[in-house]
Amino acid sequence: MRAVWRASRAAVKRRRVQTFVIGLVVLCSTTTILLALTLLTAASSPFDKAYAEQRGAHTVASFDTSKVTPEQLAGSAKQPGVEAAAGPFGQAVLDIPKNWLWMAGGTLSVVGRADPAGPVDRIDLLEGHWATKPGEIVVNWSVQGSPGTELLGTKLKAPGGTTLTVVGFATSMSKSASAWVSPQQMTRLHPTSAQMLYRFTHSSTEAELSTSLARATKMLPKEALTGAQTHLTLKQAFSALADSYLPFMTLFGILGLLVSILIVANVVSGAVVSGYRHIGVLKALGFTPNQVVAVYLTMLSVPALAGCLLGTLAGNALAGPIVKVAFTGIDVGRATVGEVSPWATVACLVGMPALVLLAALVPALRAHRLPAARAISAGGAPRTGRGLRVQRMLGATRLPRPVSLGLGQPFARPARTLLTLAAIVLGVTTVTLSTGLTSTLVAYGNVAKEDGARIQVTTGGTDGTEKVPRLGDVQLEERLRALPGAKGVRARALSQANMIGQTQPVFADFYRGDNSLYERTIVKGRAPKAAGEIVAGPAFLTQRGLKIGDRTILELNGKKITATVVGQVIEGNARALEASWETLTRIAPHAHATEYTVRLAPDADARAYADAAGKLDPAVHASVLDPDNAGTTTVITFSVVFTGLLTLVASLGVFNTVLLNTRERRRDLGMLKSIGMTPRQVILMAVTSVAGLGAIGALLGIPLGVAAHRLVVDHVGVVDFPEYMKDVWHAPQLTAMFLAGVTIAVLGALIPARTAARTTIATVLHTE
Question: Of the residues 165, 255, 447, 572, which has the fewest C-beta atoms closer than 10 A?
Fold first, then answer.
């Protein structure tokens, strides 16, 4: 083995270019795959771990206390299939003012519970103590980090003249309530509903959860169950934004893996073929066939291990920021995200070198079978007669001699040509996918930029104090419309409302005025017009099992209204819906707008308008809206980076092919130069040998890239792109994609072609 190691080390030093190519390919592929595995893990494992630690409820069910007794509810916990249960707990809805604990005004779902422990939904107390006395309340802190003790003692007016004091902050992975009070305090709030928390023996799918809940409540009166929320819905909400990154992350990971295998197989095969004489010398010196195989496998393991190690380090460095962006704004409870899973790191450290060895095994076995005498006599030349028929046919055409010779070269090494072609196909597929994603996201981002700039006007001041505007709601809207440059004004009021049957509150945006902003954001149905009509994004509708035409009940300020889903917007917060102003006047007649979006004329000065709007009232703040979207920027940046990496890898594959071809044909090149071929003709011949492969690769890769683009944009859970944003393929784009395939091939061929062109005749013939 000492001789094997010395021979392998010498081969690594001698084949520096091939060693660098293998190491770079493995580095890029390892980084890509590790990022994909990390995001996939972050979308599920942290939630599952935190949920199991808190014994989260598989189903949180609400019941009408006028139709069922506490004894009957307690009996449901003993039904078959129920692993554990907690409750019944009384629950009520309280009204909260705007900016109470930094919340939007509206409603607060409160549950009466004696302690945070129990067999189901063990609540994690962050600050203060549990509410054990009347007049005390513990608030569910849904923001990461600790709220701090300075917020303890905040007051809240409850029905009946009772004042509730915040004595603690807690968090529940089950999201079973927005706040908790003692059972005695809940009795004074006169609840009309009760809550049961269940853990079932079978809970992996929605179907199993529905069946288990039906079995547990089969002895209860009909229509007693008013709503239920499952842990699968919470998990989907937890990873909704990260899931939107997964399709293209996974595709890029797969492309990187395939390119890695192909290029490594190509490079290794070329290393064996170009090293025929070296193999013969090793065998002549006494190396056994198995030792020769070991030499080549060891020679390839060194750069593969180095590239894998560096790629793992790079992936770990990039994973934290990328996962942080993917989970920005998500209510993660006690789950921790952003850490790279150990198994993902181990999988890359072990899996990538194993892939390299598997890719190297087949060509290395050729070295095992190659006789020493034949290897020494064969040198680096291809076997006689291979591809000669095609070369003669091309030579009989009127093509320039360098072009016909270049077009015939790929047929001399068909296996190597196919591997190179496959790398170009994947490179073009990656470029096409990235271009399509960028075009779709640019069209998505342009929705906010069309029809002039937008100004956001808010009331209440910006210094942390609550200021009351001197102008009334309607007066301020009229003044904004009257300012020069205004084309349309839309008023907005935000409230935290309760959706009957759901334990989590929803953010309801109520709009009036300029509805033209809906024109290009509604992808299904229509904009809300009458009272009781709502629209929402795909994440909100999916997580609540709603679709256009479905009805639900909204509750705000003690009033309820039946709401009908009439449309779906491109995207939206998973906890937010949008409704007409008429809906707000039904359930909150005295509410007023606190935010205005002003659409300016195309030629209007946005900064001047913002300054003028800010002078209308001391409590008014105006700013120019930034049309850029952070998620769009992240996807485009990620696509560009990985497209550059995979394009570089594909070009390196072409580089390796041309380098091997020129080395194998050095005698032919010397003869061609001796009869008058110029350096430029040598470069033309080398470039032509792969330009045809680039054209064929483009023709094959473009349809694959278009299909991959469609697959990604159709499966982004938080955004539902309209058809005009998906239809991005036109003649200019397709032409550019075709040229991309040729460019990848030409760029990879230029350096070895120029090196071959500069090689003198004497040098070539002397080495022979």
Answer: 165
